[in-house]
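REQUEST ID: PR-0412
SUBMITTED BY: lab tech R.K.
PRIORITY: routine
TASK: structure prediction, single protein chain
INPUT:
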Amino acid sequence: MIDFARKLNETLRKESLCLAYEFDKDNCEGAAILSHSIARSRQLAKIAENDKVCVWNNDAVKLFHLMDESGGTKRSVFEPLSTRKASAFRGFCNYHDTLLFDRIDNPIAQFDKETVLQLHYRSVSYEYFHKKKAIDCINDFLNEPMSRKNPLYNWACDYLEIMHLSLSDIQKQKQICEKSYPTKNVNGDVKAVIFEFDVSVPVMCVGGWIPTYTINRKKDCLKTN
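STATUS: complete
OUTPUT:
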């Protein structure tokens, strides 16, 4: 189990290619930096206590440990995390992380079609990145010599197929966003729903169209993160 956990960590730490490479490779710097799906200094800092916020811990090593311990019923925990790491992922190179989200990394004075596009694209990209990493980790698990004896083996096989279906749908949304960037979403191809609260709440979130599937590989619902 220790060797497998080490292998998972190696998979997660592998250098990632910028997610914008395919649609803007001429300007892309290639390797992705550690960027935030929620702006650290402008947004996370406002709800942090002692520079920490509470987030769902989706660390793959801990995830597999929790599932192993609980027989597959428990998959995540809610834990405090520093703002440096909260919502961070290696999704974009420095150039694209700066250019593609310039409207939302500063205080948003007005929500318009371009702002909606940037929020949506970052959210979809964040989910796309983690789905791809999850698929890599599941493949690592299934390729382990002793994995067939693990009670989670059949679950992992089914879950891998579900993840591929979900990733395919997310990629379609990602491509819609990328096609909308040259026009700044002038046609409103990327839409949004805005929720307004009567009182201030200590929550920051990014929203996106995220498909989910049942264990029978039927589309279940759409959710936002």
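NOTES: The longest strand covers residues 52-57.
REVIEWED BY: pending
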